[in-house]
Fold each of these.
Amino acid sequence: MSDPRLAELSRRLPELRVLTAPAELEHYGRDWTRRWTPAPLAIVLPTSAEEVQAIVRWANEQRVAIVPSGGRTGLSGGAVAANGELVLSLERMNRVLDFDAVDRTLTVQPGMILQHVHEAARERGLVYPVDFAARGSCSIGGNIATNAGGIRVIRYGNTREWIAGLKVVAGNGELLDLNRGLIKNSSGYDFRQLMIGSEGTLGIVIEATLKLTEPPPPSQVMLLALPDMDALMQVFALFRARLVLQAFEFFTDHALRHVLAHGAQRAIDGDHPYYVVTEFDAADEHQQEAALTAFEQGMTEGWISDGVIAQSEAQAAALWRLREGITESLAPRRPYKNDVSVRISAVPAFLHEMQALLAREYPQAEVVWFGHIGDGNLHINVLRPDGLAEDAFIAQCEHVTKLLAVTLQRHGGSISAEHGIGLVKRAYLESTRSAAEIALMRGVRQVFDPNGILNPGKLFADD
């Protein structure tokens, strides 16, 4: 090990796994953005809180920056190590530590894959309800770092609603035990909530106590074809008034075309500009009849052009694939992504303004968008036209993002709904946060990480 700093780290922690092979540096040094060339110093894979503390203390002494790493499924560059940082991968800290049947909590290590969390909860007759398409590869620590939302926010809320307690190694090496699973705790500042969504800039989560809940009642899944954009909110209002919604997701014909080319099966004949996948409680005949009545009213009003209701679990999964397979189907094209949100009441006006902006600014690029109408979150994917150089494409997209940020500010929205700020969106933070807020955020960072070693360059543009 030629670097004396790494030699000292190995001397202190002889059992610590340290990776320095070029292929490993590339693999662990990037996330799904693929826009930056990975260049980490090394990769470390601790297995205990004590090792994480020792690594952080070493990093402070050596002034080595640390990039915490989970499943690296992020889309904002939050897990990129491009400037000689030490990547601290938590993938070996992936166990269930405790289950409390009375409190209905599951305590896990941060490297546990979300799908494995779901399975562990089901084995105990309960569910962890936060869910999204990347469940098979994202980690619970990364979900906490970005306050991930997903497809069932309309029913269950974001990650932060389901975190009962955290153990965190702060940037100064201190081990913090936050909230300890309490339901009521009015004893001052809630640092647990401060850590959620902080993108690894304040501390490294080494243990999470998750709230679990009862499995949802039997449900049905319906795919709807809509004639225009205005129908999205009309159908949402109709279904929300008549049904208990678990999810309400939309996508465009462009998105459908890519998913079908990726292997999904068409469920509705013909071409339609907009589609909705919705899931709702259907535990009894009354709820099932309510769904059919809502569908028929939507057809009568001209808000729904066609639809199909799943008749089996397999068909429900096939309908969901049309929505959940979008990101994977677009991945080979390396799209430029925006992840934005506005209040639900502001969605109609924002959608019209956004659509006009995208059509004007991207006359040659294909724009694929989809999202969570029920919580005001939209995902915009811009595909690079053939013949346009990568750097020119990125420059064009960043110009449009500036315009989009101004539009969001006018509608009181956010440039990041659920993917964090990272490297991609740090230049636009001021469109979402006031100067006073950003100054306070910097002050908080200084307290928890006085030497600025945790994920520098993320969140703040001039970090």
Amino acid sequence: MLTVAFVMLAEVLIFVPSIARFREDYLLLRLEKAQIASLALLTTDEMMTPELEEELLANAQVFNVVLRRDEVRQLVLSSPIPAPIHATYDLRLVGPFGLIRDALLGLADPQNRVIRVIGDPVQQGGSLIEVTMESGPLRKAMLEYGLRVLVLSALISIVTAGMLFLAVRRLLVLPIRRVVRHMTAYAEAPEDARRVIAPTASVRELREAEEALQMMQTQLTTALKQKERLAQLGGAVAKISHDLRNILTVAQLFADRIGDSVDPVVARAAPKLVGSIRRAVSLCESTLTFGRAEEPPPQITRFPLRRLVEEIAEGEQLGEGDISCLIDVAPGMVIRADAEQFHRVLANLIRNARQAIDATGQPGTIEISAGEGEAEWWVRVGDTGPGLPPKAREHLFTAFQGGARKGGSGLGLAISAELIRGHGGRLDLLKSDGEGTEFMIRLPKSAGLAEEA
């Protein structure tokens, strides 16, 4: 329908000058026939009978003919004029816009009027020829011509619209339906890689859409498979953590008894062993909680930060081998946080730094520094390791995707970031390049609404 409308609009723009041209040809034909009739009279020496003159005028469809030759204006053929002359049209002086204007005015006037038409004779038969004629037959011929143009335009527009419809259906509609069928089939079984669309469209835009859909379906299928494997892994980890928690609980009971030993070395090591087992039990419980997408709210207390950092460094055996540890934390610095959760966060960061340096086989340094401002505490953990690979930086705090070492799950950083967010703070990667990696923990000093209440 749009094609028909546009073609008809184009035909209207063509029709206006064409109807003006048709009117001009019609008037020139009347002048030519009138000139032939007048020449027939001028070439004979006999008197023309009224019947012959009337026949010549009827054949030319005019009332009279005036011919100017040799500067002499002569009324060659004449007959009674039924009405006064309404308008005069000089075809020698009018331009294209004038012809269009006269044609439209003639179509709009339904009355049969007498008009005068002036033009140049053909074959240099004089300097001027002038006829008077009726406008009714001219208007009728113009209407018939316009009707033929309209019918032809309608046929052309219908054929064009049909061809365009078939072309659009072939090039656009059918490929779009194919894409819709692929999307519907893929939605029924997104895990089936065989249902991923294969781009075949010849239209560039549709081809790009199919390629984008193919990429999205491929990524979604891969993600679903990974989620399924992760769900199975999560179930296995939950079972292992549950059983391991029970085993560690028994070990904790025996470790408590070791604390009563009279051996000073054992008595000194027992609290650390008990603390390590207690944190292992807490880690198992946290893993089970993480599998349920839940994390217990932090139990905010005040505790000295340096003592916590030294305990973690001693547990990771920093300073005993090729890895040195620099602790730049004021002895009297106290922060407000959940001691157990903050211990897990720092332990994860320090352990990751130690493993990164160990992987190089070269000596290295781990630096832990801390400070405070008016609004927050900050803790920085840096190392001189090789830096994180680009893929690890891209999904650094995403569980099971941000692992920096082979075999790593990336769960530690994800849990650490989640625990810090639970304190209202944030864990950021400051830098990671060939000179090392630095993480920054920021904890706000302002209390949460629940704690204030």
Amino acid sequence: MNQVVVVGVGMTRFGKQPERSLKELAREASRAALEDAGIPESAIEAAFVSNAMAGAIWRQESVRGQVFLSGTELAGIPMFNVENACASGSTAFHLACMSVLSGMYDTVLVLGVEKMIHPDKERTFRAFEGATDVESLLAFPGGGGRDRQSMFMDYYAEEARRHMELYGTPVEIFASIATKNSRHGALNPYAQYRVPQTVESVMASRVVSDPLRLLMCSPLSDGAAAAIVAREKTARRWTSRPVFVAGSVVLSALTGPASAGSEKKRSNVERAAERVYAQAGLGPRDLDVLEVHDAAAPGELWAYEQLGLCGPEEGAGLVESGDTALGGAVPVNPGGGLIARGHPVGATGLAQLAEIVWQLRGEAGERQVEGARTGLTQNAGGFLEGDSAAVSVHVLTR
């Protein structure tokens, strides 16, 4: 996939921004990516716009990208609206890469934007329900109840308890992951939370869904992130610091007849990782830096195991080794992850990609991973039949 190059990235600060509109956030991130690439809006031939919740929260449906980018020079170009739960942004990036590989376009914008902070929190909590099979929602642990904010946290908590029972993983390991990411987030000017935590402070925060504490969980956020991708020949005109897309995979949950057999025994992330490593011609030992989907801290632990950084019973030992922290052998979530950077659903996948681009270009400041040449992003969303409904994994190289 080395014909596809990321020539620019940009993002807004993530956080609670009730005074800002979706349009403002979208335009700021788009401008930042264009300025980073050093190209005018007129060079963009198409836009892939990711958003997951504007319909449910703000009643903006159908033409979201056209609305978010109205009044800019991008108005009038082909716009493709992409919704795929928490994997929306990385899915839009995948589609943009496909459009460039096909030869249809030379230079395209990928934009992810979400505004989750609403005066009526119940709207936001209800929006998450749409990332499940709503017909069977009542069968979900805690589903259909008033405490809707904990629906997906119930899923993470159930899987965390299972891991603890199988492998003896102590809850403090999850607190250590959250602590690490808070330290990383403190170094990221775009992060929602920039206060380093301790294992003790994480463990002392309120229980959301046992064993998960509040500070082990990603927050509701507003924000936007963007990337410009181009064909390699075109990219050479725009940048002297290209970052190549070496692998790009999107998969959905195995359900019904497709869930039978040995494939169901592997998670969607494991299946996607196998494919992306084959595309990129490398393996987990070749990775220098990763951004993974820690909607709750246990999710990062599973990512270590499912992406092949360690065996299925070795995640806790990897945390204790310090290898996944900045300065370690394979830093994970140097941008703070979803826990510290924030999780505006439609923008998260692109924020991960922006962080990896900065890392590979040596532009990550205090959180820079020295000598990083190969990075991976893992982004997952929704819930179907015991697994993520959508998964996307990308490998970038320089």
Amino acid sequence: MDSETSLSYILHHMDEDNLPGNAVSPPIFQTSIFCFPTFAEFRDAINDEVNHSLYTRGNNPTVMLAEKKLAALEGAERAKLVSSGVAAISHSVMAFVKSGDHVVCVEDCYSWTRTLLSTYLARFGVSVTYVEGTDPGEVIAAVRPETKVIYLESPTTLTFKLQDLPAIAAEARKRGIKTMVDNTWATPIFCNPISMGIDLVIHSGSKYFGGASDIIAGVIAGSKEDIDLIQEQEFLQLGTVADPFMAWLLLRGLRTLHIRMKAHYEGALAAARYLESHPKVESVLYPMLDSYGQAALSQKLFRGGSGLFSIQLKTKDIRDVIKFTDRLRLFKRAVSWGGYESLVFPNAVKYQNPAEIPPDRLGLVRLHIGLEKPEELMDDLSRALGTIS
């Protein structure tokens, strides 16, 4: 591998040889506007805001450094850093649909993706068809003449179902349909969908890129043509600004991304193997397990896995789910994931009325394995599982 395309070079050296004042850490350009020495330079910037720092609402040097590294990590021509993962999802889809168009999306997608497609865009005459997604043929069969986008999430939220990205991308490209995938789970350390033919890759930068549960960010990576369109058509209009300090925190988090992802993977694999043999666990939904139903596809898509997976508790009683959740001491009860800390998210917590919980989702619990000692996390899980009757 060329030294200037290596992971180490991208994370630690790219565009950092001549930082202002010979700084080692990139400066935070905490400024709203930029000035110009001449009329001509001012005119050039105001007529090409995509490629110039004119106003931090559009571009900023700290943000642009983060974008360059993120694009290189994904093997993309360009990346756009935005204010949240939801903004990244919304901009990506909205840039390529109009009234009368159609989207195909995986069924078990992130809740705000479903809200965008089923509620928000429905107001403007955009329709959606949801598919399980595990069979590429099913995805393509849902395509209509007016389909403009296939939106994928591999693995899917909570249920961790995979899609065959190369197969779907190849068929979509024949039909002129944009393919998009949320790659937050694997990160570019373990998966590069653009190399598989996917057009746009989306991340919640709030997760592993930051790594400390202290930023909200979103990333879109793809061709220069597509990202320029998104910047001009959606980003500048809607103002989902990535502020310089957030970009700097993300840059800091990227320094250790490869180290952290290896630790998350090793810890999650150990915990998942332990849990799949536990008598109080019905099943473990972790794509990197040899026993996983889509293990062959997982090996095709991923070089490793993250710290996130789900388990099905062997119970039909909401009280067992509550006891298990509350008994955990090292796992914090919280939304999101991707930080240094271990988390638990029972699917049942989404329902005010337990009677509304689908029976097959009552015992579904998502775990994030953080950077704590795996043996201590497994002891904690063992104690909590011991409360299930």
